[in-house]
Amino acid sequence: MFWTRTILWTASVMALLLLTAMGCAETHPILDRPMTPPEADIADLLGGESPNAFTYLNSQEGMEVRNPDGARLLALRYGRSGYALNALKAWIQEQADTKRAPRTGISTFSRSGHGAYQGDKLDGLAWTSGPWLFIAEAPGPESLNRLLEQSRLGGMASGPTGKAFLTYFWLIIPVFFIVGLAGTYVMMNKVAAWMAVNPEPGVTPVSRRELVDRLLALNDPKRPFTVAEGRDSDLAAEWKLVDATWWEIFQKAGLSKSYRLRLTLDESRHEVRAFEQEGTVQWGVGPQVHYQRTYFGGIVLARKERAYAAGLKSLDPLEVGAIYDYRFDVADIKDPVLKTVIEAGWRFAPQLWSWKVKPTDRP
Q1: Which letter does DSSP use for residue 203 in this model?
Q2: Side-chain half-sphere of 185: how many Cα atoms within 13 Å?
Q3: Which of 301, 310, 280 is nearest to 350 (CA)?
Q4: Cys bridge to 138: 42, 144, 156, 301, which one at CB 3.0-4.6 A?
Q5: C-alpha span between 73 and 67 (Å, rounded)
Q6: Count of Cβ atoms closer than 10 Å to residue 108 Cβ
Q7: Are 129 and 36 contacting, i.e. CB atoms less than 8 angstroms apart?
């Protein structure tokens, strides 16, 4: 429950930051205009009188107009929108170059597709509009606003939310990721809770010590699994892969996957939390078992293997037949454990996260 609240809280904070950034960040209204068509006439876009040719970073075409107050407007056309974006980044970086005189004290701001810069008696705005790069500079914010309002330059919007999406893409993605992660986490916990098994009504829960003794009593030489104290849980039930008497049988069955049921007993809730692990088995002189360290595991519904051997069973009388015939199913481990738990008045709760079955303080 703690991690559920933590993830949801983080997602809420990220969403709040996104809304705050979108609401507080100031961008010029010209950016909300529709994009300029690639084939637009550059002289018509700039208006004004006697535009001058201007080029920057291999632009295909470029022009500049200047006003008497020192304001200027530039339009540059590139072969692709990506080229225009690269030129924008280079332009913004150049404005902060302290070696550029007489521009002193320049500060810059940039987002995906547009940027702004300010300095002594200088305000500038640069943005891309498809394959176009537009730049406006004026000796003050009011002069810059007048210059842009009178221009015919296009903006960045390809739809109702085009500019906002481009501008805040870097923040939208983490928010959706965290919200999706939180939703997945909650859903998986719901599935695990749905698969929990409760004891019959009226059954009085036994003590923790009594339940441990009952689970350890499942050990039987005729059973192919063992229950013992675990290193990373209170108890662990798994195949007898360390018992040499079972090696041949497991190998004949072609056992390639090991299975471990980790159990933690929570006496305050009368609940046994169970985490299932599968590992790989490699056969040599004996079995080598490898469990991958993991914090997430699935709930194993079924896995079956069979070992069968026929031969001479007896000489007197002479009898030939099956020496052994075993069918190994993870249910052979899980079902006796489950039955023991609920008959003891405890709840059996499968878990998807390994940290939920850490060992408790053993008495």
Answers
A1: P
A2: 16
A3: 301
A4: 144
A5: 9
A6: 17
A7: yes
| Gap between the Cα atoms of 77 and 36, Å rounded | 10
Rounded distance between C-alpha atoms, residue 65 and residue 75, angstroms:
9
For 90, what's the count of Cα atoms within 13 Å in the CB-facing half-sphere? 11
Tokens of 273: 């939390």
Domains of the chain in sequence order: 34-156 (3.40.1000), 199-357 (no CATH)
Scanning the structure block, which residue is given the tokens 């039930």?
237
Helices (H), the chain: 2-24, 42-46, 81-95, 141-150, 162-194, 208-216, 244-252, 331-343
**Contact (Cβ atoms closer than 8 angstroms) between residue 77 and residue 83:** no
Q: How far apart are CA 336 and CA 330, in angstroms?
A: 11
Question: How many CB atoms are closer than 10 A to CB 303?
Answer: 14
pLDDT digits (tens, 9 = 90+) for 74-123: 999 999 999 999 999 898 888 776 555 445 556 666 566 788 888 777 88
- Residue 290 identity (one-letter amino acid): H
Query: Considering the entire predicted model, what is its pTM?
Result: 0.49
For the record, the structure tokens of 190 come out as 């719901």
Residue 97, SS3? coil
